[in-house]
What does this fold into?
Amino acid sequence: DPPGVVSGFNDYHGNSPAFTHVRQADSNTSLHHESHRALLLCYPPPGVGMALEALKSYTGSTVCHIGEWQGLTGDARFETLLCTTFACTTTVPIPGWGTDATSLTVWTRRHKTGSCPPPTAPLVACSNPDCQAAASWRCRYARSLCYCSSVCLQRHKGSHVCLALHMLDMTHHGGGGRATSLCLDNPSHFAKLAVPGDSMRKRR
It folds into this structure.
């Protein structure tokens, strides 16, 4: 049985049946003969080669990834290969577990130059709704909070609400009103993301 499943009972979903048939495989299963099928990677474990090995053996044209980009799922080697050989065409934010920032991304294989639509937004975008830039930092307390600069961090009023949902009060009251006490330069507050803008997606 897969992790979280004991004698057919899933800790997360109980006995709820899947809405469609999904053929299961592990990283040691060859996918060379499954080119007519899409590869679904759902929360691939972090820091190990499972997602990378599965992607290497896949010869099809569509990859669906559910997880946290540059975060708690997969690893940098997998993400680099995915961005090099596939283009992200769709991103759908989905509810996450705890403080993670989860999304469904759909990728199409790059068969030749110009075969995929050009990207229009970064995979990890700045949380400030007035900014369209790629994020460079991710908050360690609430991982959905990502910013490109200290200016956007201070201007994003929604950060207080997000932190409050996690029962955190990281604000102080100054002469200009309520402001966050989070600091991008504090490694306890934020983790540095990889080079922003290298991996792009089309926002949905």
About this structure: Confidence is low (pLDDT under 50) at residues 196-204. The two ends are 35 Å apart (CA to CA). The first helix runs from residue 50 to 57.
